[in-house]
Amino acid sequence: MPTFNDSAPKGPRAKLMPEGDYILTVVGFAQRISTGAKTNGSTLYAVDFAMEPEGAATDALIDAPSSAWKIDNFLKACGVAIAKGTDFEFLEGRAMDRNVLWVNPYGLRCRAHVVVEEFTTRNGARMKANKVGAYLEQGKKKLERMSQEDLENLENILNLQTTEDRPTETDTRPF
What we know:
Elements: E1 20-33, E2 43-52, E3 56-63, H1 68-77, E4 88-89, H2 92-98, E5 101-102, E6 109-120, E7 126-135, H3 148-158
Parallel strand pairs: 4-5
Antiparallel strand pairs: 1-2, 1-6, 2-3, 6-7
């Protein structure tokens, strides 16, 4: 059941940026279930990025045999070093339950080629948004993880509604 909080609107989405290579920082990360034809029932991670110098982008990482390479590319682009064959989880509780490595995605930074994708909303409106086209190699200088304080400041500056803030059909928490 929703709770009324008399909240102000979150404001406009971040500025749409032209296609190109950018530095991205993970500011939102939510676990969902994929409904794709080849990946139906697989774990889907909806990722929200802040783009440097401005803007926002999204990506969907799906834990399925046909798309596991994309998760590997994301981790390598962020400079996360994991031995081949090591099991891990992005969610701390699940990592503890399974006794596997926890990879905290918040604040991870990477280089990526970002594209502009046009799509139709549920109400039929045509929109454009920035999406990750490809993750790029780290380069010579590793991008350091953003601190929690800097992450919070960045979210306030961008005034983003991250994937965690978006209600879903199965949401049982007040929003």
